[in-house]
Amino acid sequence: IYISDSKDLFYGLETKKEDIEKELDLKLEWMALEDKKASRIKIVKPADIDKTENWEQYFDWLKNTAEKFHKVFGKYIKIIK
């Protein structure tokens, strides 16, 4: 999640960090980027893009994770705004 210019939104989401991570069943990296206007919330999945036999698995992870993010973060963003 890239938040371009709203520390209030980032910190609002961060107050719900435990709930969000529990619903996603994921441990996220919360990056306030104090010296910047933007903030980030992310997760990294190690992958070797040269192993084409794993691409389907990688794409499934990306799709499923993006759908979870959309559902869970969408709900919390509506609450915070």
Summarize the structure.
The chain contains three helices and three strands; from the N terminus they run βααββα. The chain has 81 residues and is mainly alpha-helical. The longest helix is centred in the C-terminal third of the chain and has 26 residues, at 55-80.
Keywords:
single chain; about 80 residues; mainly alpha; three-stranded antiparallel beta sheet; about 50% helix; globular
Layout of strands and helices, then pairs:
Elements: E1 2-3, H1 7-14, H2 17-24, E2 29-31, E3 39-42, H3 55-80
Major sheet description: 3 strands, antiparallel
Cα radius of gyration in angstroms: 14 Å
Distance between the termini: 16 Å
Order of helices and strands: EHHEEH
Mean pLDDT: 96
Number of helices: 3
Summing up helix and strand content along with how strands pair, one would put the structural category as: mainly alpha
Tell me about this structure.
It is a single chain. The chain has 81 residues and is mainly alpha-helical. The protein contains three helices and three strands, in the order E-H-H-E-E-H. The protein has helices at 7-14, 17-24, 55-80; strands at residues 2-3, 29-31, 39-42. Strands 1-3-2 form a three-stranded antiparallel β-sheet, covered by helices on one side. Strand 2 and strand 3 form a beta hairpin. The longest helix is centred in the C-terminal third of the chain and has 26 residues, at 55-80.
